[in-house]
From TrEMBL:
UniProt source species: Adineta steineri
Protein name (Swiss-Prot/TrEMBL): F-box domain-containing protein
Gene3D superfamilies per the UniProt record, alphabetical: Ribonuclease Inhibitor (3.80.10.10)
GO BP terms: SCF-dependent proteasomal ubiquitin-dependent protein catabolic process
Cellular-component GO terms for this entry: SCF ubiquitin ligase complex
Alphabetized InterPro entries for the sequence: Leu-rich_rpt_Cys-con_subtyp, LRR_dom_sf
Length: 614
């Protein structure tokens, strides 16, 4: 490779995706040196550096020719690595000077905060600092020695730092006086402790005091509370006056709808993003929740609500006791939320089929992302696909753990939701290969039925005579139409059709899918031309037909999850590379019938694919 002409390298780089750049897995120092001056780096924005490879450092030595680098991850560096790099690389210092985002997320090695502050001194343009899931940094005693101020940093991510104490938090906030976005998820806030413990935990009183002093600056705030404690009282104390600039609010804590109503009144329709975790409903169910949001959060663009599921009840008991089924006359609507484009109601189990249909009736015209609860039915999907106002704009649909959905729902999705970019159907025991192929094949009687009452071209029926070795019964009505037949007039019975893999079934499917009128009357998943992510985790009925007859052409597909689909084996797996030439990741975890040879064959056809297999 090192002897290839520069023009060839330039051509290769021009076709690499951003994901390829994030990895930067080239190992040859010579290649890095040669590529460092190429114009293809103009689309390079984030870099993840590792101290174990000198190639990444060599790349930074040429950083003066790279335009637009705005994010750098240094999570794997320790004190010695960073100190050496700062002293020896002028290009690294220049890179830091231009950064707008810096990440130490998940760092387990950088335990000396002095070098951390020294590094920040070079980041004069830095706006976002990610210190999430940091393991040891906040145990250091060097906070008190830092007297420097970093006014440019406005967004600080401290999520997951369970060892963060009041002492460390206060010193950190003094260094960053202009914070506009503060994220404290995964840090369960506790009540005040005695003076001997104030270096051990982060307390609500300390955080509350800071928020009250700076509430006019905040644009985004995420906060967590101890799961076993009610946070209703604390939330009502959080803001002394109306936070005029706050548009993003995420609270993870056990609270009642009345408390939610209290701070929605305070925000006065200014919120654009609202995420509420562990909400507790009373006997009235979801109606007060929707009424409060509809009345006092009409400018929301993103809404996500998680219910607080009781620990001691399971399954149907849980729904009967804590999640009462609402009366059909309940006012379930978000009609005032004209700008809403992201709605997550996965855990709103009290909503029945009628409630969900009412929710989507004549509203949410701009909705793009939707996550539905587990009791979603085929009729709900049918209404969304055929009558909702957002059917043409929906790009993300999450049907995770919706056990009652059948092939019928997926067939409707294939036909109507043509703008989908991400589809999640995890943990479904009913959906099988035929939904992806576009066929509605019934298990009882093994018959083919058309999806809707459409008009079927007579030519399709006339061709059935060539199927005599597979068709055992054909029912036609006495229609007077000379050319067309209604779909209700025909029902085909298949002889010896096996839902598992066999040659006879493949012959039938070949005849069906290769027919010149098949695409006109049967909508397969290949209609979803913009699909980028497809998640089919533990859809246990899926077989190799998914690749041979189902996925023929998904040009934009990047991620495929078929983990725990244990009927899939090596056969036809290579076809995924031909059907999805740009695929980057495929999850085969738990697919025990797929061997190493199958993975090698897959990579021959999908050369850039990363296989996940645990």
């Amino acid at each position: 490779m090192e002897k290839l002409p520069v023009e060839i390298f330039d051509l290769i780089l021009a076709h690499l995706t951003l994901t390829d750049w994030k990895c930067l897995r080239l190992t040859s120092r010579t290649i890095y040196i040669r590529l460092s001056s190429f114009s293809s780096y103009s689309h390079l924005h984030p870099i993840v550096l590792s101290p174990k490879s000198s190639s990444g450092i060599t790349l930074l030595d040429k950083v003066t020719s790279i335009q637009g680098i705005d994010h750098l991850s240094l999570s794997n560096f320790n004190f010695t690595n960073l100190d050496t790099l700062l002293q020896t690389s002028d290009s690294f210092q220049l890179c830091l000077n231009k950064l707008t985002s810096l990440s130490f997320a998940g760092c387990t090695t950088l335990i000396d905060s002095l070098i951390f502050y020294k590094l920040l001194s070079y980041c004069t343009s830095l706006e976002k600092l990610d210190l999430s899931n940091y393991k040891f940094f906040f145990l250091s005693n060097n906070f008190s020695q830092n007297l420097k101020i970093y006014p440019s940093i406005k967004r600080l991510n401290l999520n997951g730092n369970i060892h963060l104490s009041d002492y460390s938090f206060n010193h950190l906030m003094k260094s960053f006086p202009n914070i506009e976005a503060l994220h404290l998820l995964g840090i369960p806030l506790r009540s005040s402790l005695n003076s001997s413990e104030n270096r051990i935990f982060l307390t609500f009183e300390n955080v509350c005091s800071y928020i009250q002093q700076h509430q006019e600056c905040f644009r985004a705030l995420t906060i967590s509370f101890e799961p076993t404690l009610s946070c209703d009282t604390q939330i009502k104390r959080l803001f002394l006056t109306i936070p005029s600039k706050l548009t993003y609010f995420h609270i993870d804590g056990t609270l009642n709808v009345s408390t939610l109503l209290h701070f929605l009144l305070l925000f006065d329709n200014k919120l654009e993003t609202l995420v509420v975790g562990r909400l507790v409903l009373d006997h009235t169910g979801c109606q007060p929740l929707f009424s409060a949001i509809r009345e006092y959060a009409s400018n929301l663009k993103h809404l996500c609500v998680f219910l607080n599921a009781p620990i001691k009840y399971y399954g149907t008991q849980q729904q009967k006791i804590r999640f009462p089924v609402l009366h059909p006359s309940s006012d379930i609507s978000l009609s005032s939320l004209k700008q809403l484009n992201d709605l997550d109601i996965q855990t709103l189990y009290p909503l029945n089929e009628i409630d969900l249909i009412n929710l989507f009736r004549n509203s949410l015209i701009n909705l793009k992302k939707l996550s539905l609860p587990r009791n979603t039915t085929d009729d709900t999907i049918k209404f969304i696909c055929t009558q909702s106002l957002f059917v043409s704009s929906l790009t993300h649909l999450n049907l995770n753990n919706c056990p009652s959905l059948t092939n019928h729902s997926l067939l409707l999705i294939n036909k109507y939701l043509l703008s989908l970019e991400e589809l999640t159907i995890n943990d479904n025991i009913n959906i099988n290969d035929f939904a992806f192929i576009g066929l509605s094949i019934c298990g009882i009687g093994k018959s083919i039925e058309w999806l809707e009452q459409i008009i079927i071209n007579r030519q399709f029926i006339d061709d059935l005579s060539i199927w005599t070795y597979t068709i055992t019964h054909q029912t036609l009505c006495k229609c007077q139409l000379p050319t067309y037949l209604s779909s209700s007039c025909i029902k085909l019975r298949l002889k010896d059709f096996n839902f598992d893999y066999d040659e006879s079934s493949d012959r039938i499917l070949s005849i069906l899918t290769e027919h010149k009128l098949f695409n006109e009357y049967f909508s397969s998943i290949n209609n979803l031309k913009y699909l980028r992510v497809l998640k089919l985790h533990q859809c246990i009925q899926l077989t190799n037909r998914l690749f041979r007859f189902g996925i023929h052409s998904l040009p934009d597909l990047k991620y495929l999850d078929i983990s725990l689909c244990d009927k899939i084996n090596d056969k036809n797996l290579s076809l995924i590379g031909q059907a999805c030439p740009s695929i980057e990741t495929i999850d085969l975890t738990g697919c025990h019938q797929i061997s190493e040879n199958g993975k090698v064959t897959l990579k021959k056809h999908a050369k850039r694919v990363k296989i996940i297999d645990f």
